[in-house]
């Protein structure tokens, strides 16, 4: 055993002192970003002469029941500047922690930026009190609902190792069949069932071509979107304009809002979260459900194992493709629900391209959320928030509405390029499993 | 040292231990361009895919035909009625489709003009595919082409041919820059091009809307989000009943072929697309290849945009790009990311699109059927295993040169 | 449990991988299966584990014939397997990996992680296999990952444990630990099938030895049999691995590496303060167990990895910051360790791969245009010179055999004037004929005055080629010795002995970024 003792003698070899390059990059990046935030906030603070703003906690201005409140925006602007300044200092000294504390710091800077931005936009009004800041949260939740369903669908499929680019296609078919089912059954809830079934159908197509015929999954997704686009408009064109027929096919009922007793009375949060449609409540449920399934259950462990290392799963007796099928079909069902939002969940009858590219945004949310159901949902909320904000700010002429419209997309590019970068997808994502 | 004794031993042994089954890669054995026989299975597969798609399309036609549906109700009493009605519906739809697209010189010209932007944008997607990039951003790149070519076309005042050339170059360069930005982002930060191109499409749409809200891009005295058409001096002019753009599209295809197969840059593009690690090890600058690849892809999309603005003399409007950018992806996929294939697929899709309108007009079959057919054809082409199963072909000599794999990043 | 294999045969098409194999594994014995790479050991074990269907023959457990349709059946019958490439999910914890497929749950399918962790702790204390159940696999060293695999098999109540080439990735120290574990398992009644091609290990731990050659059992031997005897049985002839070469005619120092340090993206120092020099006309062999910094050293030499500290000089010129292109242009030839990953483009033809890093030179392109005629001539010449067996120059390299793929890489790198040749694992997965050929070419390159750096984990290859041997351990060069140094001494260095002194000097070198 002489060899062994010799080996143990040197087991603790000291490392050479070298500063990690990635660490330096992080420091520079943070300092620059925080610096930009600080400069912008300073500009906001200095260019605002009359910082009085008016706000209401309602989603819409209702001057009779809850008159807008007047507030001094300077009390927001300068603290925001202070937060940013502290953050810059921390970054420059490389003292921003890598743990959750760091995440809190990023969050605070983000909130400070938004708060400062809002004050700046709403301040200096020509007609004092004419334009009132409203609560963006209810709109955020509504617009994010289909995105979250889509993102969850993507997360489920890809965690199991099947790339799902076709969320947009699943949305379209879900939307169409939700409208048809609801019109036929004269029930908005049946519309949800129709959406789910259509989503499952699209999931099945994805599964067959990905797992049975081994089609390149990125290609497959694009083709399925094209197919769904064509098929849904073809089917729509089959519905005659004759109102007698149309009412049974494309005049769905719209899901009513349901106030959850007690919970909806909570100030601010209540009307935001608990005065929504059934679909929104289902969305809450599904976020919890998918996270729970993936990370707490036997099924989830198996799903993640077939997405990361299918061969390892196979050698312990797990049927890889069976698990993948389950995940893909469940994902399809969720995306179908998301699709139902575009008809029975919001506007009613189906129109060509009803999902308006939301499926692509959901896909972006999947990647921004790093294939995690909760983070992907947060990314989806971010999009919903930006869209709501854009709609609200459209009344103000400080920035052109079209450019504001572009901001969520620009923000995504910056986020993906600057912070997410080379994200790590599940290791076997997109690789069909074929037994030798 | 551990020599492997039997020369043929490693293959089955590897199979047995099952090292990373990647059938998509295993199947990529390219058809030899100089050997026509090696293309045969590819051609047969494509033909079968088109046939299967047409059969499914025929079912949809029957289901959308009033007479056939009524006859279906008493199928068991008078089966002949149904089959007659169904046949009538299928025959009238498909013959209208063919007549409407290639039935006369006039229709053929329309088809060619419709195909031209599809071919150009499809070439852009194909080129990116060969470099391992999945370019969903043809739409956005085209929008930038619209803005540049359009602006030059309707505001500047230049002599005829020069004006057209300047507008053309402006459109191509604008598309190239917008595409190149995607490549640059990927090269520098690893941002996945699927995400960035999707976002850039929306970004471009917003910028287009913004531009169209400004006087500089609006018709004089109008507040609509519509630009004037380009000046006559900036139009392509026609050669044998089709505008010059059609010729440009074919020239572009030739150029892309030369670039990919005969140039050092193409060698780099294909090498990086197929194995970026080995390419880097061989001294290629992978970042540069990504950037240049997307730059060229954007230039081709920009060229596609000039087909509409300078060729058809269309006004800029928020919906001008339409589906061309997205259809370009399916064109490239059907064409297996080769220039010749892309041209053929572009012509086919152009014909389907033009013929679809005629079909709706004369046979009452919705023109959306053409779109369904396109998707089905590509779907079946992408699933050679399915087609092979249908035809009991045993060859595996074909595959695709499409390199987009996973998120890989 | 008594496991019998009777007349087991496996054919792939016309190729017979296993030909009527008979084996009996008695309860509580360590049965060694000795054979070269490609002899058919893995095929046999995959049939035993339900991953492959036998063409003919029977597996008998305790007198009962059984058939295994999937690993699940084999596991149920009490067979466990530790694969050569670990079957562990890197992003899962130890406990999650161990329970996968047989999860502990509390109703509704909810995972019981505490129970799983307990199982791991229990097994690890019973068999003396130290492992933290909550650690992530990707953070663990290979030796510990292997322990997890063993625990996984044991948690399935394995009575027969198959270890497929378990020592290939281990340091000598870890190998000793593994042998201790194997003896402990045996004491507790588990039988072990130990697959290897290393004679020393077989003699150290085996109870019975079966030798497989070309898919057949060619004989059995007791562990007391001599190494020569076993080697002859394994290879079928006396092994001749000596390369004919003249003494080196050593010239000037061509490549010098000083205090090179590399930090990987996860913040680990994978190369620590390495100082080395290669002189023209000699072969510098770099020995070491896989994963001790050789990969990073080689990549840093070519400019594929940017060093965080230190300098690399070629003929006195500082090339530390060169990228791969500049390094290649400066005269470095490079044979990467993983040829399919870094060495060639599988979809490209032989012809194209032969100019993969030469296409932009004057000979093969003019401006932007490739010179097809020159490329064609080059391909024909190289295919002939290096005896590359290919249907045509148009054939994609992917469809060639391993040896011929490597010849394509080697032929390309040798077809331009070199100052330094860096070859990592030049003969891994290559047939005997090609090995001899490649070795001869390497020596010929040396004799032309090129400085040659060979990295190999096979000591035999190092001895066959090297004029000087540098040994790497834990990211450092722990010694540079002559070619006459005995095996044992190099083995000690590979295990890290002697690293102490280098480490002491290393800590003095503080480098600020």
Report the strand count of chain A: 4
Mean pLDDT of chain A, to the nearest integer, reads 86
Determine the CATH topology of the largest domain in chain A: ABC transporter involved in vitamin B12 uptake, BtuC
CATH superfamily of the largest domain in chain C: P-loop containing nucleotide triphosphate hydrolases
Q: How are strands sequenced across the largest beta sheet of chain C?
A: 6-7-8-3-9-10
Quaternary organization: heterotrimer
Number of helices of chain C: 18
Report the span from N to C terminus of chain C: 60 Å
Q: Largest sheet of chain A at a glance?
A: 2 strands, antiparallel
Indicate the overall shape of chain C: globular
In total, how many domains does the architecture of chain A comprise?
2
Number of domains of chain C: 3
Polypeptide structure, described:
- The complex is a heterotrimer of chains A (436), B (409) and C (513).
- Chain A is mainly alpha-helical and 436 residues long.
- Helix content of chain A is 66%, strand content 3%.
- Chain A is built from 17 helices and four strands.
- With 409 residues, chain B is mainly α.
- In chain B, 70% of the residues lie in helices and 1% in strands.
- Chain B has a two-stranded antiparallel sheet with strand order 1-2.
- In chain B, helix 10 runs antiparallel to helix 13.
- Chain B starts with 9 loop residues before the first helix and ends in an 18-residue tail after the last helix.
- Chain C is α/β, with parallel strands linked by helices and 513 residues long.
- Chain C has three domains: 3-235, Rossmann fold, CATH 3.40.50; 240-331 and 417-508, 3-Layer(aba) Sandwich (Rossmann fold); 347-415, no CATH class.
- Chain C contains 18 helices and 22 strands.
- Chain C has helices at 41-48, 71-76, 94-99, 113-126, 142-155, 172-187, 199-205, 227-235, 294-302, 324-329, 339-343, 350-353, 372-385, 402-414, 432-447, 459-465, 487-494, 499-508, and strands at residues 3-12, 15-25, 30-34, 56-61, 64-66, 79-82, 160-164, 191-196, 208-213, 216-221, 253-263, 269-279, 283-287, 309-314, 317-318, 332-335, 365-366, 369-370, 420-424, 451-455, 468-473, 476-481.
- In chain C, helix 4 crosses helix 5 (142-155) and helix 14 packs parallel to helix 15 (432-447).
- Residues 499-513 of chain C have low confidence and may be disordered.
- At the A-C interface, helix 1, helix 2, helix 12 and helix 13 of A face helix 2, helix 3, helix 6, strand 12 and helix 18 of C.
């Amino acid at each position: 055993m002489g060899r062994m003792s010799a080996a143990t003698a040197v087991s603790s070899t000291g490392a050479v002192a070298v500063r990690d390059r990635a660490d330096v990059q992080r420091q520079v990046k943070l300092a620059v970003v925080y610096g930009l935030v600080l400069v912008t906030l300073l500009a906001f603070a200095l260019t605002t002469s009359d910082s009085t703003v008016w706000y209401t906690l309602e989603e819409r201005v209702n001057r009779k029941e809850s008159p807008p409140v007047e507030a001094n925006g300077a009390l927001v602007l300068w603290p925001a500047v202070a937060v940013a300044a502290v953050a810059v200092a921390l970054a420059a000294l490389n003292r921003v922690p890598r743990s959750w504390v760091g995440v809190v710091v990023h969050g605070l800077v983000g909130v400070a930026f938004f708060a400062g931005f809002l004050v700046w936009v709403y301040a200096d009004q020509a007609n004092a009190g004419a334009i009132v800041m409203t609560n963006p949260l209810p709109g955020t939740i509504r617009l994010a609902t289909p995105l979250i369903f889509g993102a969850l669908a993507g997360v489920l499929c890809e965690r199991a190792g099947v790339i799902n680019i076709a969320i947009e296609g699943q949305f379209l078919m879900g939307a169409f069949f939700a409208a048809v089912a609801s019109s036929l059954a004269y029930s908005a809830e049946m519309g949800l069932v129709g959406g789910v079934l259509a989503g499952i159908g699209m999931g099945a197509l994805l599964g067959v071509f990905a797992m049975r015929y081994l089609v390149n999954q990125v290609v497959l997704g694009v083709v399925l979107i094209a197919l769904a686009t064509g098929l849904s408009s073809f089917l729509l064109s089959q519905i005659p304009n004759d109102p007698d027929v149309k009412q049974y096919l494309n005049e769905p009922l719209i899901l009513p809002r349901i106030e959850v007793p007690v919970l909806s009375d909570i100030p601010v949060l209540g009307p935001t979260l608990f005065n929504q449609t059934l679909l929104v409540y289902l969305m809450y449920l599904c976020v919890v459900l998918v996270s729970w399934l993936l990370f707490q259950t036997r099924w989830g462990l198996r799903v993640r194992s077939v997405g990361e290392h299918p061969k390892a799963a196979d050698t312990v007796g797990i049927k890889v493709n069976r698990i993948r099928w389950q995940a893909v079909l469940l994902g399809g069902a969720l995306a179908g629900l998301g699709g139902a939002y575009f008809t029975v969940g919001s506007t009613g009858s189906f129109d060509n391209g009803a999902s308006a590219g939301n499926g692509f945004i959901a896909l972006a949310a999947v990647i921004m959320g790093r294939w995690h159901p909760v983070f992907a949902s947060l990314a989806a909320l971010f999009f919903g928030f930006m869209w709501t904000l854009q709609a609200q700010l459209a009344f103000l002429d400080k920035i052109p509405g079209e450019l504001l419209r572009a901001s969520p997309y620009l923000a995504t590019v910056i986020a993906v390029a600057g912070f997410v970068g080379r994200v790590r997808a599940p290791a076997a994502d997109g690789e069909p499993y074929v037994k030798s | 040292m551990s020599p492997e004794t039997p020369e043929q031993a490693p293959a089955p042994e590897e199979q047995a231990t099952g090292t990373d089954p990647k059938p998509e890669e295993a199947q990529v054995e390219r058809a030899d361009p100089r050997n026509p026989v090696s293309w045969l299975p590819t051609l047969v597969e494509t033909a079968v895919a088109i046939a299967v798609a047409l059969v499914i399309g025929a079912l949809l036609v029957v289901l959308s035909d009033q007479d056939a549906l009524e006859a279906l109700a008493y199928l068991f009493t008078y089966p002949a009625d149904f089959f007659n009605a169904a046949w009538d519906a299928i025959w009238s739809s498909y013959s209208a489709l063919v007549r409407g697209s290639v039935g006369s010189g006039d229709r053929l010209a329309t088809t060619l003009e419709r195909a031209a932007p599809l071919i150009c944008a499809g070439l852009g997607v194909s080129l990116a595919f060969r470099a391992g990039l999945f370019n969903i951003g043809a739409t956005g790149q085209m929008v930038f082409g619209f803005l540049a070519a359009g602006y030059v076309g309707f505001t500047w005042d230049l002599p005829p041919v020069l004006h057209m050339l300047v507008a053309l170059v402006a459109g191509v360069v604008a598309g190239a820059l917008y595409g190149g930005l995607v490549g640059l982002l990927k090269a520098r930060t690893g941002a996945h091009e699927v995400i960035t191109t999707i976002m850039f499409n929306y970004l471009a749409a917003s910028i287009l809307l913004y531009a169209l809200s400004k006087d500089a891009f609006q018709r004089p005295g109008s507040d609509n989000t519509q630009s004037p058409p380009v000046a006559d001096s900036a139009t392509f002019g026609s050669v044998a009943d089709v505008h010059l753009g059609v010729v440009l599209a074919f020239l572009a295809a030739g150029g892309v072929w030369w670039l990919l197969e005969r140039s050092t840059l193409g060698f780099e593009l294909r090498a990086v697309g197929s194995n970026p690690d080995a390419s880097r090890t061989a001294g290629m600058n992978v970042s540069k290849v990504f950037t240049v690849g997307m730059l060229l892809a954007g230039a081709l999309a920009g060229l596609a945009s000039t087909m509409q603005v300078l060729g058809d003399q269309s006004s800029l409007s928020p919906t001008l790009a339409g589906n061309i950018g997205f259809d370009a992806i399916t064109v490239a996929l059907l064409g297996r990311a080769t220039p010749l294939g892309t041209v053929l697929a572009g012509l086919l899709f152009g014909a389907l699109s033009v013929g679809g309108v005629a079909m709706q007009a004369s046979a009452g079959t919705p023109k959306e059927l053409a779109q369904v057919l396109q998707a089905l054809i590509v779907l079946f082409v992408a699933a050679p295993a399915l087609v092979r199963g249908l035809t009991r072909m045993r060859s595996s000599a074909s595959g695709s040169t499409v390199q987009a794999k996973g998120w890989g990043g | 449990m008594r496991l019998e294999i009777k007349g087991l045969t496996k054919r792939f098409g016309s190729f017979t991988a296993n030909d009527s194999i008979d084996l009996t594994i008695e309860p509580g014995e360590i049965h060694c299966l000795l054979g070269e790479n490609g002899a058919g050991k893995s095929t046999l074990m995959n049939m035993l584990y339900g991953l492959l269907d036998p063409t003919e023959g029977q597996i008998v457990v305790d007198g009962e014939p059984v058939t295994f349709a999937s690993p699940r059946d084999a596991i149920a019958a009490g067979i466990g397997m530790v694969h050569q490439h670990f079957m562990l999910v890197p992003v899962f914890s130890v406990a999650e990996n161990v329970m996968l497929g047989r999860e502990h749950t509390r109703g509704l399918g909810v995972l019981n992680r505490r129970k799983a962790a307990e199982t791991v702790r229990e097994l690890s204390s019973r068999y003396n296999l130290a492992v933290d159940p909550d650690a992530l696999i990707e953070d663990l060293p290979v030796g510990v990952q292997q322990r997890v695999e063993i625990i996984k098999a044991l948690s399935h109540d394995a009575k027969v444990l198959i270890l497929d080439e378990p020592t290939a990735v281990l340091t000598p120290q870890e190998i000793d630990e593994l042998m201790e574990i194997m003896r402990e398992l045996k004491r507790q009644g588990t039988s072990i099938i130990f697959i290897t091609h290393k004679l020393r290990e077989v003699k150290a731990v085996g109870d019975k030895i079966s030798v497989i050659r070309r898919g057949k059992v060619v004989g059995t031997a007791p562990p007391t049999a001599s190494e020569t005897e076993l080697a002859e049985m394994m290879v079928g002839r006396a092994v001749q691995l000596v390369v004919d070469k003249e003494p080196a005619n050593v010239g000037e120092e061509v490549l010098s590496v000083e205090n090179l340090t590399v930090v990987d993206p996860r913040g680990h120092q994978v190369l620590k303060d390495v100082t080395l020099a290669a002189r023209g006309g000699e072969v510098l062999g770099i020995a070491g167990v896989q994963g001790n910094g050789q990969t990073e050293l080689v990549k840093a030499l070519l400019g594929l990895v940017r060093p965080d500290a230190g300098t690399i000089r070629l003929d006195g010129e500082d090339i530390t910051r060169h990228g791969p292109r500049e390094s290649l242009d400066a005269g470095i030839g490079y044979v990467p360790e993983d040829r399919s990953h870094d060495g060639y483009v599988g979809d490209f033809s032989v012809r194209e791969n032969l100019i993969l890093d030469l296409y932009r030179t004057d000979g093969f392109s003019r401006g932007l245009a490739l010179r097809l005629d020159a490329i064609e001539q080059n391909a024909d010449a190289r295919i002939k010179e290096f005896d590359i067996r290919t249907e045509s120059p148009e054939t994609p390299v992917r469809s060639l055999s391993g040896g011929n793929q490597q010849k394509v890489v080697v032929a390309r790198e040798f077809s331009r004037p070199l100052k330094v040749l860096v070859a990592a694992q030049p003969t891994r997965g290559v047939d005997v004929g090609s090995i001899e050929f490649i070795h001869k070419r390497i020596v010929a390159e040396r004799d032309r005055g090129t400085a040659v750096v060979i990295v190999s984990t096979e000591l035999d290859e190092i001895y066959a080629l090297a004029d000087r041997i540098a040994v790497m351990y834990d990211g450092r060069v722990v010694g540079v010795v002559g070619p006459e140094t005995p095996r044992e001494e190099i083995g000690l260095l590979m295990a890290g002995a002697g690293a102490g002194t280098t480490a002491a000097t290393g800590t003095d070198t503080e480098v600020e970024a």
